[in-house]
Amino acid sequence: MATRRTAPVTGPITPDTHRCPGCLAPGIPNHKFACRSCWFALPTKLRRPITAAYLAGDRAAHAAAMQAAIAWFRAGPHPAGAR
Fold first, then answer.
1. What is the DSSP string of 29-77?
2. Pairing mode, if any, of strands 28-29 and 17-18?
3. Residue pair 37/21 in contact by the 8 Å Cβ criterion
4. Share above pLDDT 90 across residues of the chain, in percent, rounded to a whole number
5. pLDDT tens-digit profile of 20-56?
6. How far is CA 52 from CA 2, 3, 26, 55, in A?
């Protein structure tokens, strides 16, 4: 029987990590925006611009996309299946 994790697996904050913008868990690697559960709770319309701007190397668009996602997290709570 599979066990579902209720909290993200994270570690302490170091120079190479930050807090998840969704659940505020510490220890998210800097190359990731959020923990896995918060990343997939974020609507696809907000996830895609983060990834696209990062891959395109567009720092301004990437920052704007991350700010929009952070605003969405702060506006919560969000219904299940808000994608």
1. ETT-SS-HHHHHHS-HHHHHHHHHHHHHT-HHHHHHHHHHHHHHHHT--
2. antiparallel
3. no
4. 72
5. 999 999 999 999 999 999 999 999 999 999 999 999 9
6. 33, 33, 25, 5
What pTM, to 2 d.p., does this model score?
0.77
Instruction: Enter the DSSP assignment of 15.
Output: T
DSSP single-letter state for residue 25 = -
- Identity of the residue numbered 74: R
CB under 8 Å to 72, separation ≥6 — which residues? 42, 43, 46, 78
Which residues, in sequence order, are bridge partners of residue 28? 18
